[in-house]
Amino acid sequence: MITNLPPENAKQSNSKKPHKVHLTGEKATLLMPLYAKALDNRSRHPILHDKKADEIVSMIDYDFEKLKGFGNGNVMVVRAKQLDEWVKEFLRSNPNAVVLNLGCGLDTRISRINPPATVSWFDVDFPEVIEERQNFYSNRDGYQMIASSLTELTWLQQTPKDRPAIIIADGVFEYLTKEEVKGLLNRITNYFPRGQIAFDTMNSYAMKMGRKRLKERTGAEHRWAADDVKEVDQLDPKLRRIAQLSLLGSKYLPVKYRGLFGVALIFPHYRNMMRLLQYEF
Fold first, then answer.
1. Tell me, what's the pLDDT at 219?
2. What is the pTM of this model?
3. How far is the first Cα of the chain from the last one, in angstroms, to the nearest whole number?
4. Residue 102 contacts residue 150 (beta carbons within 8 Å)
């Protein structure tokens, strides 16, 4: 039984007019993973089976064709898939946990995971993004959207601090500076008694490869490159790394992409272009 799944906004779902999204810069990048998940859902062998993302795309008036193939949609999809699996695993052991989905955009993770009613789930993003999100989701028991920049100091106080927490940042930290990431991690590990945090990183080579196209299509710019995972480990002394995965070597990639990326994985600058890191504290 679906208990704390946030409903679609009734006004939007009954409207025949497509919704226009008015976002710029890094805020506009939320459309890239959303469209990648919609395309995955339309494929012959979906990885996520994300019908909700597909529905939201159909409601938005935007030229999604210009995002097709950006950054390779399958990589965005397998990134989401792996993060979903880590969240599910954590919730099986901690059914009363707090979930923070940082820089949520129009992500449909809560719909995919459908957590039990004992979980408190918080989707966090800029006020302008949350305003857009409210066209498709509504707050309810067990689910709350928080409108705030991640670097703002007080938003975390809206969440329970006496329960284990899992924190997800999916395609987010590369838009912050290293010092901003460090400050955010420090606040989180000081706030919650224990938990996990999982996020992706890009190296300098990946950023250089995608900088021009990202700027042209969204106006956004990446700001933090993580070339050495040991430097990431040192951002917070309370964090202990428990997993490191190359997205280009993910077991969730379709066979054709595994073959395509297989040779490239021999070279470290390719292998470490996009990584998923999982920590406990």
1. 66
2. 0.87
3. 32
4. yes
pLDDT tens sequence across 3-57: 445 555 544 444 445 677 767 667 777 888 999 999 999 999 999 999 999 999 9
Q: CA-CA-CA-CA torsion for 214, 268, 72, 79, nearest 10 degrees? A: -100
Residues of the chain with pLDDT under 50: 1-4, 10-16, 71
Q: Per residue in 236-262, pLDDT tens?
A: 999 999 999 998 888 998 877 776 676
Domain ranges in the chain are 72-209+222-280
Euclidean distance between CA atoms 144 and 137, whole angstroms: 10
Tell the residue number behind the tokens 């995002």, with chain if given.
Answer: 67
Residue 111's CB: how many other CB atoms inside 10 A? 19
For 178, the 3-state DSSP assignment is helix
What single string gives the DSSP state of each residue in 111-146? HHH---TT-EEEEEE-HHHHHHHTTT---BTTEEEE
Let me know: does 37 contact 51? Beta carbons within 8 Å. no
Contact between 42 and 64 (Cβ < 8 Å): no
> 118 in helix, strand or coil?
coil
**Class (C level, CATH) for 72-209+222-280:** alpha beta
251 phi/psi in degrees, rounded to 5 = -70, -15
Q: Residue 229's closest CA among 211, 242, 213?
A: 242
